[in-house]
């Protein structure tokens, strides 16, 4: 029997999932985003789920696009992601069922503190127009993640296009923390979810080189939902286990646990299972 550490993001783990290798008798296989893993939220939820149900939660953390692909390929039982438009298309195509809201935070633009005054009072669309005009280096996730999807939406709203061919626009093709580090090295900007930024801030003991330079725009809400892999398409998917986990994570007890999850005494996610459809 293979022993796999919770939260392992290696290609080896993905290969095991794809091969249908059993990792244990009482377990649930989940594909999720880098932000739920990087922030440490799953390190809190997984042992709580084990305690309440006796089931081991095994997850692989990748961009939302890749997480949904793992579900489409019948490699996992449940997906926990944050790209509403893409999720709805996924459900319409019959890949996922029982899509359920879990929580939200928001996206923020971060960069060197010197950028803060530049964007004061601007909307995110106005800020992106200025970034293009002044050719400020911008580092994109470039990985089809939920964050990458939101960033592309903002560029299209601001410019009517995505500046993919511009020399100042850099596609990292990596996770959020790695992308932040690249933006720091390039003395540029990036868009990140607030939860991962707080984790980055915590890694620097509350004094990070990159700071929030724009926040609060109504278009920057970041909604997370969970859904089961459709058992009609994937016969080996553990639908019963997926449904049990969905019901558990949106229970009053666990919604309170999500609300109480903090770093630097800052709340990373706001539960919203009862307020959003």
Secondary-structure map with pairings?
Blueprint: H1 11-19, E1 27-33, H2 34-38, H3 41-53, E2 56-62, H4 64-72, E3 78-81, H5 84-92, E4 96-111, H6 124-134, E5 138-140, H7 146-159, E6 169-171, H8 176-186, E7 190-193, H9 194-203, E8 211-214, E9 221-229, H10 239-249, H11 252-259, E10 262-263, E11 266-267, E12 270-271
Parallel strand pairs: 1-2, 1-3, 5-6
Antiparallel strand pairs: 3-9, 4-7, 4-8, 4-9, 4-12, 10-11
Helix pairs in contact: 6-7
Structure characterization notes:
There is one protein chain. This protein is of the alpha/beta class and 277 residues long. It folds into two domains: 11-105 and 223-271, D-Maltodextrin-Binding Protein, domain 2 (3-Layer(aba) Sandwich); 106-220, Periplasmic binding protein-like II (D-Maltodextrin-Binding Protein, domain 2). It contains eleven helices and twelve strands. It has helices at residues 11-19, 34-38, 41-53, 64-72, 84-92, 124-134, 146-159, 176-186, 194-203, 239-249, 252-259; strands at residues 27-33, 56-62, 78-81, 96-111, 138-140, 169-171, 190-193, 211-214, 221-229, 262-263, 266-267, 270-271. Helix 7 links the parallel strand 5 and strand 6. Residues 1-13 and 18-25 have low confidence and may be disordered. Disulfide bonds join 74-234. InterPro entries: ABC-Tungstate_binding (IPR052738), PBP_domain (IPR024370), TupA (IPR053775). Residues 30-252 form the PBP domain. Keywords: Signal.
